[in-house]
Fold this sequence. Notes:
Distance between the termini: 39 Å
Amino acid sequence: MLNSKPHVTIAILNWNGAAFLEKFLPFFLKTTWENFTIVIIDNASTDNSLEIVTTISSQIKWIQLDKNYGFTGGYNRGLKQLPVDGLWAIVNSDIEVSPTWLEPLINEFTQNQSLATTQPLILDYKDKTRYEYAGAAGGFMDAYGYPFCRGRIFDTVEKINPEYNQSIPLFWSSGACMMIKPALFWEAGGFDERFFAHMEEIDLCWRLQNLGYTHYVVPNSVVYHVGGGTLDYTNPRKTYLNFRNNTLTLLKNLHPDDKGRVFSTRIVKDLIAIMQFIVKGEFKFAKAVLDGISDAHKLNRESPKVTIPPKKLTELDGVFHKSLVWQYFFRNKKMFKDLFS
């Protein structure tokens, strides 16, 4: 049973993010929840991040890692040094929070014993009338393993829609700003360090659902995310990681009854994606897709993980039981609400 006034550790991973820390840490310090600690987990930064943090507040804790372990390895190593009581808020350094951002997320945990993670509404810092790519109003998955958000499908990001202002179960909570029960993080095995960065939260949340836990978006909490701080959305490296990590997530977590259907369809769709890049002359992106898929299968063969017994997609929350690709590209359904009409 969670304490009614749990301690919250706000864990912020940093790598050469002095400018973000200087800009956004003051907002975190204004948090009104009376029982919280801010911890910076530093991935061997070479800028003046530590100096900036020390100047801002002596109350912020600093965990120094010996090299850059990426999002997954950095968090795993840093979180091992944190208490497992209360709650963790895993938050990107490029996020602006309001003073009362924590309370709604915490309240959801006190009311739902099966809850593993929550996320706030994530809006675009550069245009606060729109959702932000990495999380929007909550994470979903289609019947063929394509992740999307309520408020963001592929590259279409919506303006704020009041219809999305209700707390609902999700397939995944955003790693940009996620509250999680520490014991459940470790029960599921933490972040898979093979991912390095991108989609690791989807893999984690899928494992947690397979264990019987749930994820919710809490729209009463709102944060503003700059986005693209690790890799720009137009970087071929990001394309590579997205395809590799998505494929690896499916290999790890799909129920055997779903694998044949999903992968037989994905082969065709991934080949189409490669051909589209080639037609547009974007050969680096075509190679990134091909390499990502190939490397995912190689990783799964060479370093298989002990997996949690999977559930069928029909048994999980936040699944759109149709093809997102078909609805988006062929039926012109670009917004989340249109998918269900």
